[in-house]
Amino acid sequence: MKTKITLLISFLFTLNSNLFAQVYGKEMPGDKMKNTDLVWVNENNNTLKFIKFTKPLQINEANHSIWLKKILHAPSSVEFKLIRKIRDNLGQEHYRYNQEVNGFKIDGAQYLIHTYNGKILSINGEYFPSNNIQTSISINDSQAFDKALKAVPSKSYKWELENSPRPQGELVLASVNEQLRLSYKYDIYSLNPLARYY
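The structure assignment produced for this chain is given below.
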């Protein structure tokens, strides 16, 4: 069975998980959010995790990214890039956006917009505040890849068996100790033991 974990090579190997959320009804303390039935707020960074709207909102698809920035109070350096749009059996359309800062994708930061007949029913996802960013990096792709292999030992890797080039690192921003750090991310496919690490 394939195992998927996020493997990020940076100065530190740290996993930051945002597992806790505060749930509110129609009102958030100190800040009324009109037209909401349910609001979840991430307790770790006080960002919105989920909103269900009482009355669906008519926001044009071309304006989704701008609207997300507004509702999440994102600065101008943040962009939401559409990566997937699917239609389910109920006729709802689901738009998945990656969060980027200054052109770099933030690992694990995605937001979804759920619509029916072009109207937004709800939104949910992980938003990372971008007020503490470290964009310098002191190691290169080759050095980072060596560290990744040491972290994921294997008797054989898929690219070796296929005699193909090794995985290339993708530069992403990773959340480490409440800071976004520029890091290398790899897709490591081990055949022995059988596992896949990201």
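Interim note for the steering committee: Residues 1-21 have pLDDT under 50 and may be disordered. DSSP finds three helices and 14 strands in the chain.
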